Amino acid sequence: xNTSPVVKIKRNTRVxxxxxxxxxxxxxxxxxxGLIILSFMIFLALFGPQIAPKDPNRxxxxxxxxxxMTQNADGVVDFPLGTDALGRDLLSxxxxxxxxSLFVGLASVLIGGVIGTMAGVISGYLGGAIDDIxxxxxxxxxxxxxxxxxxxxLVVLGAGVFNLIIVLGVSQWVTYARIxxxxxxxxxxxxxxxxxxxxxARDWHIMMTTIFPNILAPLIVIASFNVASVILAEASxxxxxxxxxxxxxxxxxxxxxxxxxxxxxSWWLAVFPGVAIMLTVLSLNILGDWLRDFLDPRLRx
Amino acid sequence: xxxYIARRLLQSILVMxxxxxxxxxxxHLAGDPTYLYVSERxxxxxxxxxxxxLGFDRPLPVQYFDFLGRLLQGDLGxxxxxxxxxxxxxxxxxxxxxxxTLFAMFLxxxxxxxxxxxxxxxxxxxxxxGIMLFAMLGQSIPGxxxxxxxxxxxxxxLRWLPISGHIPVIQPALxxxxxxxxxxxxxxxxxxxxxxxxxxVFSLSRNARLVRSSxxxxxxxxYIVTARSKGLAERRITFNHAFRxxxxxxxxxxxxxxxxxxxxxxxxxxxxxWPGVGRLVFNAINQRDIPLVQASVVLFSLLFxxxxxxxxxxxxxxxxxxxxx
Lengths: 301, 325
Fold this sequence. Notes:
The structure holds two protein chains of two kinds.
Chain A: H1 5-27, H2 29-51, H3 90-126, H4 128-142, H5 146-157, H6 161-170, H7 173-188, H8 191-198, H9 203-211, H10 216-239, H11 251-258, H12 268-295
Helix pairs in contact in A: 2-3, 2-12, 3-4, 3-6, 3-7, 3-10, 3-12, 4-7, 5-6, 7-10, 8-9, 10-11, 10-12, 11-12
Chain B: H1 2-27, H2 34-37, H3 44-54, H4 60-72, H5 86-121, H6 126-140, H7 143-157, H8 170-174, H9 178-219, H10 222-229, H11 234-246, H12 248-272, H13 277-286, H14 290-318, H15 320-324
Helix pairs in contact in B: 1-14, 5-6, 5-9, 5-12, 5-14, 6-9, 7-9, 7-12, 9-11, 9-12, 10-11, 12-13, 12-14, 13-14
């Protein structure tokens, strides 16, 4: 097969970049820990039904509120993490819960990221009135306590995974738009964009295939932090009863149910899902930090 | 400065209109909002009557201007459950929420700044590492979960702090009973510690990290190197030369901070049974008391926009680069 030298060089630099990233990741201890934890959570989310020892919604009312590691009559531990107020297996519910948290996090970041990036690139590349309108909209949204509006929207539309994803997604577009715009403005006058333009490429083509790949790095960093904050927001909203419906096991939802059991001493219902959320968010934050420092050497210290 | 104030005022008015428009439109997102006001078993006639009574049969623009007009007169609708004006219900509970928010604000700024500076001057030591690890954890913990854990450990386990209850300070002060207000302070603070940490932990951690990195940035600049080569004491460099410039990014987010903390209050008040607006909103959500939710959201948002305006104007006064830009 004939590969042009340019493509070869391109491929080689890409491989070198990846190697550099791998080395830097191995040198830093914490990001590796974060990566392992996150991979574990993703594994749980993907293969939940195959891993979970029990049906997460099966109620055994006689066995309600069993403490973790309780042995049954035969000396076997049926529920390693205990059961909830309806006698459901907490371990299985936690494993299924990984799905909701990660899915809501990723999906809404994807929605916010796509809308925001497109708005930002268009705004930065075209300038003029369109730029003004988009940036004023962004200002207005930033001046808004968004979680309050989110509450309002979810009260009216009703709680649910779909509504949650849309609302949380739309709430983030501004961050991406601002960064994409600033980056686009910086790239717009560069020679390679000039070259594409003089070769007759259309605006849309230049924006999406010429400029976009070159502004991707900072957006990915923001996205990694945003997945973390969306997971936190989802937990808060589910805690308020505005997130995922109670039939779907989610970490925030289990925490919400634990509230009524606190005084009764069922600590496990509150401790385990909280730890799961914290570990996931912590891993994402650590990885985001590392990614930012890696992509922007000026920030390294 | 005059033009800056005018521009900023105009912008705030636009945002406030945006806030009211959005919270108005939200009601109509799911179609006819009448169904949010009647019970599920309401008869056809009941629905028609309610629709007419609330004016939902009129064109949207008319309804919006009506909404705006009533808002200007302080009429935010009537709570469906309490049968009282929503504004009155919110105002009754505002002092408790302000106490909690201000306390959290104290933690997230007054406390975060020295922590960040200290960490920056001790950069690279185990102590700095420890502080930053805690800050990282603080940014990754769901605030309300930390609240639950505090209740379980410090409250129920060690019995050091009360797990619920609120001792009013602002309320008696407003009523002119200053001596009660003052004598309530120590007990009020005890009750504030755990809810305050719950609301403020995220901001505290983020700001400590922010102050640290902006301090490090400033400390590496030429004028600091000059000061050091002149032989100035390290303490003097930290406080006289670096401190003020390192604070700029913190001041920038101060206005946004208050709104952020206000949103955290809804969850924290629910965890600690704090008798504030947040708990009111939570109960209103559960009882589907739409006018009350809407009134709280609109009021909080307006408060937020106004605070932002004040902070921005103060900031422009402090830093000439802002108003000239």
